[in-house]
Amino acid sequence: MTTQWQAYQELELIPNSATEPKANWFFNTLFLSQPWRSLLNALTQEHFHEQRREYFERCWTIDYADPYTTRHIDQLKKLLTLLN
């Protein structure tokens, strides 16, 4: 049975003379710990929601120089496009 390193060597065409890299226990433990993952997930979700909100605001902007030319059906079409 081949190890992960052997499979990686075969797939990436790494010569057999290359040694298997040693795992850094502290580094792996730090980045895989539950508090660290929770923090990264929270920051990612915040960034995602902020980007989505900014996108909707940009899409929903109305030309205030000529507000009476926009018909309600156009706004409805824009809303349905955004929801899709």
Please tell me about this protein's structure.
This protein has four helices and no strands. It has 84 residues and is an all-alpha fold. The mean pLDDT is 80.
Topology:
Blueprint: H1 4-12, H2 25-32, H3 34-60, H4 72-83
Task: Tell me the distance between the termini.
Answer: 48 Å
Net shape: elongated
Q: SSE string, helix = H, strand = E?
A: HHHH
The residue-averaged pLDDT reads 80
The level of helicity is: 55-70%
Radius of gyration: 26 Å
Strand content: under 5%
Number of strands: 0
How many helices? The count is 4
Which terms would index this structure?
mainly alpha; 84 residues; 67% helix
Give a short synopsis of this structure.
The protein is built from four helices and no strands.
